[in-house]
């Protein structure tokens, strides 16, 4: 799984698994996480 501090990404065949790890923000997306999701 490719990790950044808050967003983890793994591809399994035709499926992409994306995990948000921001418990302090209740796993909400901020601008940085949004930008990372767009990159993925």
Automatic annotation (TrEMBL):
InterPro entries reported in the protein's UniProt record: ClpP/crotonase-like_dom_sf
Top-level taxonomy: unclassified sequences, metagenomes, ecological metagenomes
Official protein name in the record: Enoyl-CoA hydratase
């Amino acid at each position: 799984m490719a990790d950044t501090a808050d967003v983890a990404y793994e591809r399994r065949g035709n499926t992409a698994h994306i995990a948000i790890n921001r418990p302090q923000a209740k796993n909400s997306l901020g601008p940085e996480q949004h930008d990372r999701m767009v990159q993925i």
